[in-house]
Amino acid sequence: MGNTNKKYIIGVIDTEAGKMPKVSTTLSVADKWGTFKVRWSFNRMDYRVTPGIYAVGNPNRDSLVFVSANYKLSFDVLRQSLKGMDAYIMVLDTHGINVWCAAGKGTFGTSEVVNRIGFVELKKLVNHRNIILPQLGAPGVSAHEVKRLSGFSVIYGPVRAVDIKSFINAGMKASKKMRQVRFSIYDRLLLVPMEIMSGLKYILWGAFITVLLSGFSKTGYSTNTAVIVGAHSAIILILAYLTGTVFGPLLLPWLPGRSFAFKGGILGFVLFAILYFTGFMGKDLIEVIAWGLLIPGINSFILMNFTGASTYTSLSGVRKEMRFAVPLQAISAFIGIVLYVVSRFR
Amino acid sequence: MKEKYLKNVVTLEFYLDKCTGCGMCETVCPHSVFKIEKGKAHITERDLCMECGACAGNCPAKAIKVRAGVGCAGAIIVGALTGSEPTCGGSDDSKKSCCG
């Protein structure tokens, strides 16, 4: 299983609960390269840290205990934020999923916290009975249940690990800002590579099939037509895909409407208008109408799926917009494809 | 800019009479939906709720109810196709996940 490269472990310390690996609080070139690859969806599901307890600095029986997921990105931001401190990191087994998603699934949850406290013999390790959890772990955890079952009080730290020191300096108090998730343009930019990679396979297949089938016309099959007409259509398809995956996330707050599917439809329509008025789309009315259905449909679908990556959509809300959007997307895709084929055979 | 999603859709329910004013809901909510005033919690802006369920699960007085789930179209599609509840990452350890 991946992540055999454990350069972040820089030693071993002896404790009353046995030997414990000590971790570095700076990210190595290998760590940063790993993060970059994960952002681009390489090995993303295999980027794990072994669950258990780790030392930061030289912790003693009074040191703080921070809880994290066994997704390496979660672990990396935490250990980086603890630079200069003496503390423990207790890593839960979240199946390699980040804190917030794992909390939503329940793998970052009450029973895993309670069991892990037992496995690592936390009671032998520290005198106090407090553990600090990331606030975004709260959807999976009941603090009062953890207390009842393990004796440990859960303190919810800030949303972002970088705020941990301010949180501690303020006497374990987080400001309102530290308690809120954001979805800044930078946060969204970080998601763009993953968005591009997510459906790339499908869009490239779609483009390839379009090129192949474009060779058919009333006069039979022509490789020449396939290359010239097909490549043109394939470029439009890929442009539509890139617009949705790059500009969709980046322009999200400025796209009109609240529904993501609607925002995507508008974005697609803008691209359609640009391609039409620049003359790139050609003048065949039926083909133009086909693209007028296909491009907004594709973009609507892409942005609808971006709800999962966003930080503020609710299940009820997404269900509601899907009830309208999915049938519309399906109809526009179907009619769009039919019209496109018709335009080829005229 | 505070992003706002659809109006009047969330399933969040709050029972003021059960509230003990402990403040856990205010602490765990990632969108500051709850605020403690005069010893009791109050909902500030309901439409900001994303139904993550943190408040309900951490309310020792059981004063909050919400049908928690993920606001993720991909998960809803997978859930509909497999006949299961929509969750992040689909079934356990599935390689098809939108969250890493």
For the terminal residues of chain B, how far apart are their CA atoms?
26 Å
Radius of gyration of chain A from CA coordinates: 26 Å
Model regions low in confidence, pLDDT < 50 over at least 5 residues of chain A: none
Which CATH top level class of the largest domain in chain A fits? Alpha Beta
Helix/strand/pairing category of chain A: mainly alpha
Annotation, overall tally of beta strands of chain A: 9
* Shape call of chain A: elongated
Helix-strand makeup class of chain B: alpha+beta
Number of strands of chain B: 4
Mean pLDDT of chain A: 93
CATH topology of the largest domain in chain B: Alpha-Beta Plaits
Shape of chain B, please?
A: elongated
Which CATH architecture of the largest domain in chain A? 3-Layer(aba) Sandwich
CATH topology of the largest domain in chain A: Rossmann fold
Order of helices and strands of chain B: EHEEHEH
What's this, in brief?
The complex is a heterodimer of chains A (346) and B (100). With 346 residues, chain A is mainly α.
Quick tags:
heterodimer, A: 346 residues, mainly alpha, Rossmann fold, 3-stranded mixed beta sheet, two-stranded antiparallel ribbon, B: 100 residues, alpha+beta, Alpha-Beta Plaits, 2 domains, 4 strands, elongated
Describe the 3D structure.
The complex is a heterodimer of chains A (346) and B (100). Chain A is mainly alpha-helical and 346 residues long. Chain A folds into two domains: 9-179, Rossmann fold (3-Layer(aba) Sandwich); 185-344, no CATH class. In chain A, 54% of the residues lie in helices and 12% in strands. The mean pLDDT of chain A is 93. Chain B has helices at residues 24-28, 54-57, 73-82, and strands at 13-14, 34-37, 40-43, 64-65. With 100 residues, chain B is an alpha+beta fold. Chain B has two domains: 13-65, Alpha-Beta Plaits, CATH 3.30.70.20; 70-100, no CATH class. In chain B, the strands form two sheets. Chain B has a two-stranded antiparallel sheet. Chain B has a two-stranded antiparallel ribbon with strand order 2-3. Chains A and B meet through helix 3 and helix 14 of A and helix 1 and helix 3 of B.
